[in-house]
Amino acid sequence: MSADFDYAELHCLSNHSFLRGASHPDELVLRAAELGYQALALTDECSVAGVVKAWRPIKEKRVCLKLIIGSEFRFDDQGVVLLAPNRQAYAQLCHLITRARRRCGKGDYSITRADFSQGLDDCFCLWLPSGHSDDLKRLHGFRNDFPERCWVLVENLLDEGAFERARRAIALAEAADVPAVCGNAVLMHHPQRKELHDALTAIHYRQPLDQVWLHLKPNAENHLRSFNKLRSLYSPALLAETMRIAERCHFDLSELSYSYPSDLVPGQFTAPEYLRLLVRQGAKRRHPKGISAAFEEQLDKELALIREKGYEHYFLTVYDIVRFARSQGILCQGRGSAANSAVCYCLGITEVDPVAGKLVFERFISTGRNEPPDIDVDFEHERREEVIQYLYRRYGRKRAALAATLISYRPKSAVRDVGRALGIDLAQLERRLANYGWRYRSKNWIDELVQDEGLGLSAQQISVFKRLLAGILGFPRHLSQHVGGFVLTDQRIADYVPIENAAMAERTVIQWDKDDLEAVGLMKVDVLALGMLTAVRKTLDLIRQHQGKTLRLQDIPQDDAEVYAMIQRADTIGVFQIESRAQMSMLPRLKPKAFYDLVVQVAIVRPGPIHGDMVHPYLRRRLGQEKVDYPNDALKDVLERTLGVPIFQEQVISLARVAANFSSDEANTLRSSMASWKKTGHISDLRDKLQANMRANGYTEDFIQRINRQIEGFGEYGFPESHATGFAMIAYVSSWLKHHHPAAFCCALLNSLPMGFYSASQLVQDVRRHGVEVRPVDINASAWDSTLEASNQDWAIRLGLCRVKGLNETVARALIACRPSDGFQHWRQLEGIPGLSRRDLEALAAADAFRTLSENRHQARWESAALNLQAPLLKDAFEQPVTTDYALPAPDAMDNLVEDYHSQGLTLGQHPVQLLRERGQIPDSVCADQLLVLAEAEQARLERLAEQHSLPLPERVRIPVQVLGLVTNRQMPKTATRITFVTLEDDTGNINVIVRLTLAQSSLKVLTTRSLIRVTGVLEKALDNDVIHVLADRLEALEAELEFSVRSRDYH
Amino acid sequence: MPSPYQSLWLYLHFPLLALEARFGEVAQSRSVLLTASDGRTVKQCNALAQAQGVKPGMTLRTAYCLVDNVAQASYSAELEAAQLRNLAVICYQYCADIRLCAPLGLSLEVGSMLRWHGGLDAFIDVLESAIKHSGHGYQLALGHTPLAARLLAENRAGWRVIDAPAEQQQLAKLSITQLALPLEARDIRSLAAMGLKTLQQLRQAPRSELGYRFGQALIDHLNALQKPRELGERFQLPPCYDERLELWHEVAAADALIFPIKRLLHGLDAYLNARQLSTGKLCFSLAHREAPVTPLTIQLNSASRGSQSWAVLVALALERLTLPEPVLIIGLRAEALTARDAINEDLLGDRRPQAEAQHLLAMLASKLGNQSIQQPNAGADWRPALASRPVAVGQTTGASYARAQPALLLAQPEPIDPTHYHALSGPERIAVPAWAQPGGFQRDYYRAWHPKSRSYHWISRHRDGRWYREGVFA
Q1: Are B8 and B17 in contact (CB under 8 A)?
Q2: Which of residues 57-116 of B touch A (CB under 8 A)?
Q3: Which of B200, B189, B206, B193 minimizes the C-alpha distance to B225?
Q4: Cis peptide upstream of residue B103 (ω within 30 degrees of 0)
Q5: What is the pLDDT of residues A208-240, one digit of tens each?
Q6: Which of A490, A632, A941, B462 could pair covalently with A259 via S-S, beta carbons 3.0-4.6 A apart?
Q7: Is A976 in the B-facing interface, judged by CB distances under 8 Å?
Q8: CB B195 to CB A858 under 8 A?
Q9: Which long-range contacts (CB under 8 A, 24 or more apart) does B216-223 make?
Q10: Does the distance separating the beta carbons of B195 and A875 come in below 8 Å?
Q11: Residue A594 burial (C-beta neighbours within 10 Å; 0-12, 13-18, 19+)
Q12: DSSP helix/strand/coil, A807
């Protein structure tokens, strides 16, 4: 675009000034470049949250525009824009934002005039007149604080009195002898965004649009204006001044050279020396009998690569965190690209031996790719906070902070907020959302919802609603804390990026998310919480306590055939990762028999491979039913380890390089943009290129489309091999413990709840089916946690008092401490327990924990209600009566069952289904343990018939059946078929039910609200394995509805 | 021998009182529900909603999933209480000793009333027909103690058990959750958890032990099932004005009605004076021989007080009234009764001009109807024509947003030749997106001097480039 002058916009807010700006940072940058601006200052309100997102397109697309970083501040009805001309000024700005933000709760800031008087020696100040009579005095103040660096910002936005105010601003500048410069308070890249801006304003004030007129801008002038308009509104001097300022600004985000924390290296060593030393020591520890040549070679190769990339500090930092955890007895396990290295194995970051597991380090880190190393470390979920607090102690709050997560508008929140802005009756909208927002909604549910006649919107309103929804989706709403991504720096973090308070007390987050961090090259270490590690550590503790055996993770044999046999039977309730319904149905088919099989198993039941239709080809090849071949030889290297079928995210990226000639940079972009693959827009050009190049290279259309769908699937739940390896390790360890120490493992799981896929009830039923005795809660035998007790040369689980709902932990511990050595013998002994309340007694009686003092629960409650506790129980009118031998009616089996579930969520007595069956309250049906028998008999019959009559066998066995049970699980994976998987439980086991979408929709009420249902359908079994399920034709609620709720795990 | 009815109580239970009070007849034909004060759960719902699976206590979200087209409103305890009092008024015609058992019941002492009504059957007939007339669903039972009657009614456990031992047998079957026990929910759960689940079982437990564990109130409650004890607070007639005047001859001319009406107004004035109340609305009902009642409502404002000033307003209203038939009866109900202002006297007299203006406004409104009287407005809408649109009296939002534009704009902008004007300031651009009006709105406004008329005008350039005069500065 030609213009007779140059221009730089110095006052521009993006949508990272939440609910103020109406354009994304990249939209602003691209539009400014399109208009021919020389520079654009992004000056979000007390924030630099959007700057990386503005900087990235400039860098990546080589846009010809200078990005200036700044920030707008508002205080005492004044406005000031600060700009950062150089690195020092940027750090000063970040520190100012940090100070202002740390004073307030999440999302707010507070700043005073005094904050501008010091510590901003390099920043530029653009001062906005407020219209007050003492403006000149205020301007003098700023001029003194920012000598030669202060300007009056003149903005004419064509609102009422705009020309007069602009003239006054220029007069003020002349009077104070300060230069004036023009700006446009940009809030949107294009005036068409005004409608969305109005909606954002209404959302901000939580009122309908027609109630917030006063807060709406009178026109759409807060946009990036054309040169014609700029020329007509501002004098050449004002316009020229923008360029003079821009030319004095040199700071670019690429100058942020990150330095790793250096204090981890003892003085006498350099980082490479120290790392080498630690690795050598670790190698000896791992291989006490001597290090093999292959391992030695691998170590050297890796250390050389680490040296070349300068990653020593990174590995040392992770090592330090892991070392701390280990010193505290906290279990941890690393995963991620860099974690699968011999170096990490020697440093103890991972237990996976990469050489034994045939994992090649270069597959994860290559010299060609310029991506930061990635190690996520999982810690025991109950103790991760200790690690976080260690990091704060070790580095201080000025050098350690959590990365942010940008929470953006999703369809439901967008419908709600836009609906409110348009003044739609919220109750009615919620009602519609409840109907449409459900899982069984159609794909274009938003359109259907908006057009729903019940909302009574006119055609005009519908089109506005749709337009606003389309615009607001993906808009950031607020910053939240990342699940565990820590940024650690050598100097203060606020030199790089401002820090603000998170919603959680004592937590601080930086203003950038993980993508921003990656773009500017700041190191992030993920400190994550994993429930299974807690359970594993507790299992090891129990084994040590009760069996006197000290078992460490590294002591667990890696290739125990019995453990793999158990896994192949899908006997994996409670085990890490391979315990879900889908995983369990895959196990008998995939039949893992070595560690790498588990790595594949963990990764294959994921949206990526499922969307890409890679599961069945892999299974067929594994079973030898299909020839292992490769689209061409070039891909053999990439796909060989998974029999020619791409399973892992890394393989798809390598495939892009090999099959679609992607450069390293493009492959890297592909990896980081997988998350938005489906959303089109940003990377459709990448997708087009991938497809075009693959086509040109002679790949079939079918393969290309499958790869494309697989990438879409990865987008939602990207699952790389490097992470699958770490997970497979924990899956194996937990399987080993379940097989060899079932009582200890189940006991530890019970003590680590809530976690995993199964409820306490399901875990207890499973362990009992494995022959482990489970003993009830008893005030004379239970500890707080569940424990192990000796039982006929084996171990039984004693349920702990922690299982008793409503029991105060302190009281329970006091009760245990006061417990006489021979146990409580009579009721009065309980009166002296400190803090014991009637509520606690109730809870204990409900759990039948007084079984040694009383015949039944009723009696226990009656007796305990008469105890004279420290708090006066009652009552004025009645003297404590002489105890009579009044015997209450004893509870029946159903009463006991109900109480068991209410008080502990499980029963050790009869299963509810068994009980109802005995009472004749439910119809006859096939039990869970009979289904396989039935199917096998049918299969044998079919095979006999086929042989006799030389007939082909059907694909699978199909028998009509009726089954019933408690619903313990409802799931609907995001697949095209949108099938709901329901698990029913009866007294003999679990029944897998498959519900098609149409049936789910027509039986919505039964499916979602009832806990005891009967399914009429067809039992199906494949001929070559024992995987069975019931394909439902009809769902019915049973009349004998239970008086208690069974915990169902729904839609996770 | 004493009559078996000597000590007899009747209890009326209205299970959906608030719901029916809110929805009236609508509740008969469609699913309706009341939301609890948290706004998220169902408080009450009618049978139609229940048939589709909605239950009290359920979240609204679940309810929406089950019923597509449900009318809803918030539960109001006040409305419920008022409705209960209204029902008590109905019963008061037949029974002198009525107890309000809020929120849903009335306890009537009937033993002593029966001789006035010619026996139990006759009494129940008249009572039921009156209650049915109210449109409320109800459950009714008789009992030898007020509490027994209440429990039998609430639980539909036999409405007319005359034999006292049989009554006790019926009661014994009730579960403890049906007994309205004066215990917290937790204690009731405790009782059940001890296996004491029915009144029968509760009676078998040693009373002193029960009392020790659960308190005196429980024992008193159990006793009240056998020995009469009054429930709730005694109902007294509500103080309100609702009078009828039968005319001694038919009046055909509307303006002639003012004379009898003055009598009514006089009575009302005396009544309000005695009770120190003011009224905001006079509701007349003019009954004819054949035609339906003609209603006549007079809105009053704070300045209209006393029968004379009302009479003026009524006379003005009567002038506009056309009667379908001559009037036989005039009813007058005073609505919106409020306590009078603490300061009745305007000592300094500075309220008078305001009061006179108010009175003038009230007179104009009575004469012409509210919609005919408009006042200027300065609204918040950026579009000048909409912001300064005059509004009906009493409809201004209160806030006013002064802008540098003429207070009164031309009804339609007039096309002009801009060369005849000298722009003094502007442009001021006003642009409103399409959410506010189809196609959006954009105009540039200028303050301009019109030399020919020697006046300041407000002119605008529309999006099509044409120029208009929007208004004239005074």
Answers
A1: no
A2: 60-62, 64-66, 68-70, 72
A3: B200
A4: yes
A5: 998 898 899 999 999 999 999 999 999 999 999
A6: A490
A7: no
A8: yes
A9: B216/A875, B216/A876, B216/A877, B216/A878, B217/B182, B217/B183, B218/B181, B218/B182, B218/B183, B220/B182, B221/B147, B221/B179, B221/B180, B221/B181, B221/B182
A10: no
A11: exposed
A12: coil
Find tokens 């592909």 and name the residue: A670
Task: Say whether domain B1-30+70-238 belongs to CATH 3.20.20.140.
Answer: no
**The two three-digit tokens of residue A1020, written as one number:** 């199906």
A882 touches chain B (CB under 8 A): no
Distance in Å, alpha carbon of B103 to nearest chain A alpha carbon: 27
What is the set of domains in chain A, with CATH numbers?
256-380 (no CATH), 928-1050 (2.40.50.140)
- pLDDT tens-digit series, residues B369-400: 666 677 666 777 888 877 777 766 655 555 55
CA distances from B13 to A376, A392, B114, B125, B151 (A): 65, 64, 21, 17, 10
Per the CB < 8 Å rule, is B213 touching A454? no
Question: Which residue ranges does chain B devote to CATH 3.30.1490.100?
Answer: 242-339
Q: In B168-326, at which residue ranges do the beta strands (DSSP E only) sit?
A: 233-234, 242-251, 277-288, 294-299
Return the residue matching tokens 């529900």: B33
Distance in angstroms (rounded) separating the CA atoms of residues A347 and A75 = 52
What is the C-alpha separation between A654 and A637, in angstroms, rounded?
Answer: 10
Task: For residue B403, give the nearest of A160, A194, A861 by CB distance.
Answer: A160
Mean pLDDT of A640-659: 82
> Tokens representing A619?
């299974």
Q: Is A194 on the interface with B (CB under 8 A)?
A: yes
How many Å apart are CA B469 and CA A890, to the nearest integer?
93
A179: β partners: none
Distance CA A466, CA A222 (A): 23
Alpha-carbon distance A668 to A522, whole Å?
17
Per-residue pLDDT of A990-1040, as tens digits, reads: 899 999 988 988 887 788 778 889 999 999 998 878 888 999 999 998 876
State in words which class domain B242-339 has: alpha beta
Residues of chain B with CATH 3.30.70.270: 1-30+70-238
Question: What is the rounded distance in angstroms from the CA atom of residue B40 to the CA atom of residue B408?
Answer: 47
Tokens of B106: 């009335």
Q: Does B129 touch chain A (CB under 8 A)?
A: no
Is residue B211 within 8 angstroms of chain A, CB to CB?
yes
Q: For residue A848, give the chain B residue with the closest CA.
A: B193
Hey, how many other C-beta atoms are within 10 angstroms of the C-beta on A682? 12
Instruction: Cite the beta strand spans of A695-827 per DSSP E.
Output: 774-775, 787-791, 794-798
The amino acid sitting at A408 is S
Helices (H) and strands (E) in chain B, counts: 17, 19
Residue B289 has pLDDT above 70, yes or no: yes
Could you tell me if B254 and B317 are in contact, meaning their C-beta atoms sit under 8 angstroms apart? no
Contact B195 A865 (CB under 8 A): no
Q: Is the dihedral of CA A264, A266, A270, A276 positive or negative?
A: negative
Q: Which of A12, A24, A13, A48 is nearest to A475 (CA)?
A: A24
From B256's Cα to the closest Cα of chain A, the distance in A is 48
CA angle (A457, A463, A469) in 5-degree steps: 100
Measured CA to CA, the distance from residue B58 to residue B47 in angstroms comes to 15
- Please indicate if any CB of chain B lies within 8 Å of the CB of A623: no
Distance in angstroms (rounded) separating the CA atoms of residues A609 and A615:
6
Q: How many alpha carbons lie under 13 Å from residue A428 in its C-beta half-sphere?
A: 15
Mean pLDDT of chain B: 79
